[in-house]
Amino acid sequence: MLQPNLILEVKRRIPAWVARLKNEGWNEVHCFSIAQTIQEILQHDPRRALWLMADGKEPQNWQRTNESLTNALQNGKAIQIKLEALLQSLEGRKDAIVLVTDLEALHPYLRIGRSRASSRVSSAFTRCFFTLAVVQVKQA
After folding, report:
1. Cα–Cα dist 115/113, whole Å
2. Nearest to 79 by CA among 70, 67, 92
3. SS3 annotation, 3-63
4. Where are the domains of the chain?
5. For the chain, which ranges sit under pLDDT 70?
6. Own/partner pairs for 39-46, CB < 8 Å, 24+ apart?
7. Confidence (pLDDT) at 135
8. pLDDT in tens, 69-88
9. Residue 1, pLDDT score
10. Angstrom distance (rounded) from CA 140 to CA 137
11. Which residues sit opposite 101 in a β-bridge?
């Protein structure tokens, strides 16, 4: 389970991390926000009008809502595809780094371990960091 205090600590530290990385020679520092990606995927899903209509009829049916949104995120692996596209666009650039943020947004839709395990990062571009993991390691 993700601890709220660690989530807030990560959000607080990200601007400083980005600045420090740039000062240390990483000319391309990219933040890949899981929350923003989920919002974009769900906002542009062709089923959105149906979801809104169903939610208007039964606004307290959280289980059905979460199942439907989970299906939208899992089918086609949209998050993974977007992350891989970013990584591929940076392939071969030695001064590029990606910070994956807002991992907590995956809950309740996806399991973090499962999505992390299924992500195939090109061996040519391995500087991709899950920011929550960085804080947990430093605090351990």
Report:
1. 6
2. 70
3. CHHHHHHHHHHHHHHHHHHHHCCCCEEEEEEHHHHHHHHHHCCCCHHHHHHHHHHCCCCHH
4. 4-139
5. 1-2, 76, 111-140
6. 41/72, 41/73, 41/78, 41/79, 41/82, 42/69, 42/72, 42/73, 45/72
7. 43
8. 988 888 768 888 898 899 88
9. 59
10. 5
11. 33
